[in-house]
Amino acid sequence: MKLILGIGGGIAAYKSAELARILMQNGHEVQAVMTSAAQKFVQPLTFAALTGRRVLTDLFALEAAIEHISVAQENQLLAIAPATADLLAKFAHGLADDFLTTLYLAFTGPVVLAPAMNVNMWQHPATQSNLAALRARGHCIVAPESGYLACGMTGPGRLADPQAIAQAIEQALSTSRDLEGETILITAGPTQEPLDPVRFISNRSSGKMGYALAEAAIARGARVILVSGPVHLEPPRGADLIPVRTATEMRDKVFESLGPTTIVVKAAAVADFHLSRVPDQKVKKTAARLSLELDPTPDILAELGRKKGDRLLIGFAAETQNLQAEARRKLESKNCDMIVANLVGTAGSGFDSDQNEAILVLRSGDSISLPRAPKREIADRIFDQIPKLRLALQTAK
Ligand code: CTP
Q1: Ligand 1 near 313 CB (within 6 A)
Q2: In CATH, what number is assigned to the domain containing residue 112?
Q3: Closest ligand 1 atom, residue 303 Cα
């Protein structure tokens, strides 16, 4: 495959030559791009000799007029080793003042970052928050190793082993477009159930998990239909967004969109009860006490379970206790292929958080524990299960 190896200006730049050699050996076409700082540590000639191609260094070279765009379009993956603190900061904030940083912004495929720097620079809150932003964008970070550093200090900061970086690149390439051809219907956010023209019942769902799923699915090549309750989030680029408000509206839009769908992911926190008949006028504060009589909303997931056909159905379970047992009960009763179970409330990762932890409960009887990670990473781990779920569905027929 065709990939880009970006080299930042750090002492570890010389180890990138070994990485270039491994990638060539693995059968890839490697386009090396060096920052001007990188060229102070290693000559471009080293990479030109190893990759058999001209090394790109200068945004303003005459022949490079819009080359960062064509290089971005022609290649399947962008790997950066070493990713310096400066490069991480520029990528995190979208600064683009040389070939590599403009290339990063123009590139839409998977990105693998292998940072290397002094231990204090690595641990600095600025670097850590840039890393969190890059992780949340779905980039793979190959964590630096601990050990003796060129600056004389000991601790994390040493570039990961080139073999380990090459392995992360292979892994990212194998999942990069694995959902191509799938149409994934994702529901996200809360629903709002009106009590009168100005009031409603809702819940604390932020929609972040559903939106992270939509982003991950799009990045992996799927078409995404996102049926979303009211949230304060930017819709992911490339998703077909269908905004809804109530559980009943969500049900109707889900079934209208089901035709071309191959996978349904029900991340929405649907209200379980609503007022069947909503008063036309605002309820006044006249009575000493107000009782509400609520009726159940349609259980969309259960209805999908009955009508799913060959589609894969992934449900969510938000529980405050008995996580696994409740998740398995929901999997059976709603005929799902997998349930993503979250502990919520004081014991859990909390709503509105950018992070989550979950247990994946599969029809096969397996359960997989996903430790606390950015929601975008959890989303990718959920989609990693698709081949296994499809195989289980086919063998069950
Ligand atoms: N769900 C749904 N329609 C509803 C309620 C829930 O489609 N009216 C879906 C959610 O999108 C989620 C799953 O069902 O994927 C589980 O939601 P949860 O609220 O955890 O479970 P409930 O089925 O409501 O069961 P309980 O309230 O007893 O925990």
Answers
A1: no
A2: 3.40.50.1950
A3: 7
Q: Residue 382: give its domain's CATH number.
A: 3.40.50.10300
Instruction: Indicate whether 221 and 93 sit together in one domain.
Output: no
Q: Among the three residues 114, 145, 174, which one is the final residue of a domain in this structure?
A: 174
Tell me the pLDDT tens digit for each residue of 359-387. 999 999 999 999 998 899 999 999 999 99
Q: Ligand 1 pocket, 297 CB below 6 A?
A: yes
Mean pLDDT of 164-186: 94
Q: Write the pLDDT tens digit of every residue in 183-198.
A: 999 999 999 999 999 9
Using alpha carbons, select from 204, 314, 188, 203 the residue that is nearest to residue 240: 188
Ligand 1 contact, 18 CB (< 6 A): no
| pTM of the full structure | 0.85
Please identify which of the residues 49, 61, 151, 391 carries the catalytic annotation: 151
Does residue 132 share a domain with residue 18? yes
Per-residue pLDDT, 349? 58
Domain termination residue (choose one: 128, 157, 174): 174
CA of 299 to the centre of ligand 1 (A): 7
Distance from Cα 334 to the centre of ligand 1, integer Å: 9
Burial class (CB in 10 A: 0-12, 13-18, 19+), 138: buried
Please give the Cα distance from 388 to 38 (Å, whole number). Answer: 43
116: containing domain: 2-174
Instruction: Looking at the structure, tell me whether residues 221 and 131 fall in a common domain.
Output: no
Strand locations in the chain (E): 2-7, 29-34, 77-83, 111-115, 140-141, 145-148, 154-158, 183-188, 193-196, 199-201, 223-228, 240-243, 263-266, 273-274, 295-296, 312-319, 338-343, 355-362, 367-374
Whether 140 is a known active-site residue: answer no
| Pair 46, 195 in one domain | no
Report which ligand 1 atom has the smallest distance to the Cα of 268: 11
